[in-house]
Amino acid sequence: MPRRIVLGIRGVGHRVIESVWRLGRASHFFMLMLLKSGISMRRFHLIIREIYFTGVLSLIIIVVSGLFVGMVLGLQGYETLQKYGSESAVGTLVALSLVRELGPVVAALLFASRAGSAITAEIGLMKATEQLAAMEMMAVDPIARVVAPRFWAGVISMPFLAAMFSAVGIFGGYLVTVVLIGVDEGSFWSQMQNAVDFRYDIVNGVIKTCVFGVAVTAIAVFEGYDAPPTAEGVSGATTRTVVTSSLAILGLDFVLTAFMFRGMS
Amino acid sequence: MTSETLVEINDLNFSYDKRAILKGINMTMPRGKVIAIMGGSGCGKTTLLRLIGGSIAPSSGYVKVAGQVVHELSRDALFQMRRKMSMLFQFGALFTDLSVFDNVAFQMREHTNLPEAVIRDLVLMKLHTVGLRGAHKLMPTELSGGMARRVALARSIALDPLLIMYDEPFTGLDPISLSVIGNLIRRLTDALGMTSIVVTHDVQESLKIVDYVYFISEGVIAAHGTPAEVRDSVAPFVHQFVHGEEDGPVPFHYPANSYASDLRLGDRFA
Ligand SMILES: Nc1ncnc2c1ncn2[C@@H]1O[C@H](COP(=O)(O)OP(=O)(O)OP(=O)(O)O)[C@@H](O)[C@H]1O
Ligand SMILES: [Mg+2]
């Protein structure tokens, strides 16, 4: 029995030490990547290529999900608001929900599972098949050549994807409430225009998406680079990317929201 | 051997965790020669190449390339040195997101400012030497194992390095490509005055092209000599290796407990 307790304590200690090590490696890696980003910035075509793979190829899932989320918001919002006779405010509800919360958060969650996992798997496989080692032997730094372009491509794509999500979502809400249900079109748009504040809603939403973009892609590239060079290692890292970045998005969203919208009515 | 030394290995020791892989290796590799390193599977040949390339550091001893101790170089100096050496990886390690052409062009684009038209001609020439000019548009996944290795070979000679390390260049090649690649290694070495280190299991083919052979066994150099010396050698080790016999001083088995105890025959018959 005491032996079991000792083993248990040792196990916990081992995991703590391992996590601290990982955190240290991650910070070191992140600093290196920022330091070496200058090189990839000067060769912007590398980033453009990655924007295509991470950003453009994520468009379909973002657009389709945005449309459905907007339509559901329209339906639910109309259901509730008509009880109080204020169904013309449904445009405001759809727009504010999307721009402040759902756009950044849901787009980032989708981005993490679509593009983040792909980035991790790709970098992890390149490591497992010795492509990164080969690159090092060719005197080319894999962090500058492979990792940094993917990171910046993700950071650049994320705000555009979230904006796309919100825009399509608002259109979805419009389709359901104005076109299908028959809410007055003029008041749908004008109430929305009056209620959505550029500084508080749009700018804050954009800040959120930028933070999420950095978090998701940083996690994705680190997990790929740090993955054990085996098939199980890469698949485990891919899963961890999705789980960790989803939790990071939700946690960061709470913190950011608390700071941004505190004391607003 | 009188010519100038390019690679010098002095009392090199290396271990993974606590298991000693290489013990007290000494080698001298002159410019313009093809040197073969042979030895059983898992004896540390790839490890030796990685030590020469500086991707791992020795536990003691040193590797000198062109007069510089590899593991003492700063990262920048190491990268500077690596521009003059290249390595053909055991499994090719082609960049899977780039086409065959872009793989071969990779280092030219990274390290030179050559115009794209010149790069194009150079790449096609390199691919032509390995017989794959016609395959330049393919992606690495569309190649067979042997083709991938030939592309990797073309990539490793892209910038005409001073030192090339080939990790088993002959595996997975048919007899024709095998002798073409063998002769290519010889011709490149002679024409460019480079040094080639060839890790191989293919005794017969490599004895035809190399200048000097080292046999590694259990972490030490078991024998070395010119191909003629090796062919005539009566040392049991060399004889076993050259003639591929199972019984002899080279162990086929990875170190283990006794077979009987692993199968727990002891318990049953006790
Ligand atoms: N990353 C590692 N961690 C621990 N041990 C390793 C590692 N890589 C290789 N080894 C061990 O080092 C020894 C030498 O490996 P190495 O790859 O150099 O063999 P090799 O001579 O190239 O064999 P082969 O001819 O099969 O390619 C092997 O016994 C292997 O078990
Ligand atoms: Mg090997």
List the helices and strands and how they pair.
The complex is a heterodimer of chains A (265) and B (270).
Chain A: H1 2-35, H2 37-42, H3 44-54, H4 59-83, H5 90-128, H6 131-137, H7 142-181, H8 185-195, H9 198-226, H10 231-260
Helix pairs in contact in A: 3-7, 4-5, 4-7, 5-7, 5-8, 5-9, 5-10, 7-9, 9-10
Chain B: E1 5-16, E2 19-30, E3 34-39, H1 45-53, E4 60-65, E5 68-69, H2 75-82, E6 85-88, H3 100-111, H4 116-129, H5 145-156, E7 163-167, H6 175-192, E8 195-199, H7 203-209, E9 212-217, E10 220-225, H8 227-232, H9 236-243, H10 259-262, H11 265-269
The complex binds adenosine-5'-triphosphate and magnesium ion (MG).
Give a brief outline of the structure.
The complex is a heterodimer of chains A (265) and B (270). Chain A is mainly α and 265 residues long. Chain A has helices spanning 2-35, 37-42, 44-54, 59-83, 90-128, 131-137, 142-181, 185-195, 198-226, 231-260.
